Amino acid sequence: ILPDVRGLHPFFEELASRYAERGITALAMDYFCRTAGTDAQPEGFDYQPHLELVSWDNVAGDIKASVAHLRAQSPAPRSVFATGFCMGGRLAADATTLGLGFAGAIPFYGWPIGKGRGGMPAPADVASAIECDLLLIYGGADHGITKEVRDTFDKALDKAGVHHETIVEDGAPHSFFDRTAEEHADASADAWDRTLTF
Fold first, then answer.
1. How far is CA 169 from the centre of its chain?
2. Which own/partner pairs from 149-154 qualify as long-range (CB within 8 Å, at least 24 positions apart)?
3. CA R_g for the chain
């Protein structure tokens, strides 16, 4: 699980528990352990100064270490998936270019084009290196990730021969699943069901 810009916010720890309740081993990464320490984030954690120090090289290394940790479990998982949210959604797609043998990835409203924070590649630019199927989940009322942006990524994936399904939850804004799930309960429930099915 690749969190959004807040890092290892309690939502993502709870999401790992939701997966575990379904019999799925889950690990939620922390982008900020190098700069904020490894203790739990306090209420009102100011993530912004730490966010500015995040780099793709470090995150890629953390993704590799996380996958190695999961595969070292006993029993080892049959397959490993990446999922992420906003910045983490972009990273979930990017993770599948690292040669780690992912079975699939579920980016939630990940920015697929344009310059990325800390040198994070644009998934549309590295589509030919994506090694697995993708389930792409977006909010239809996301004012940043518009239909044009989604279509650009879809076309890049089609050209690269990457099997993918693009789900657009009508009326749902950016971050509907992790920040406004109660207000968008139907969209969140549908996205969760599709995630588990995938």
1. 17
2. 149/111, 149/112, 149/113, 150/112, 152/112, 152/113, 152/124, 153/112, 153/113, 153/123, 153/124, 153/127
3. 16
Q: What is the 3-state secondary structure (H, E, C) of 122-161?
A: CHHHHHHHCCCEEEEEEECCCCCCCHHHHHHHHHHHHHHC
Q: Does the predicted TM-score (pTM) go above 0.90?
A: yes
- β-pair type (81-85, 164-169): unpaired
For residue 40, the model assigns a pLDDT of: 87
Q: 57-106 pLDDT, tens per residue? A: 999 999 999 999 999 999 999 999 999 999 999 999 999 999 999 999 99
Burial grade of 7 (CB within 10 A; 0-12, 13-18, 19 or more): buried
* SS3 at position 165: strand
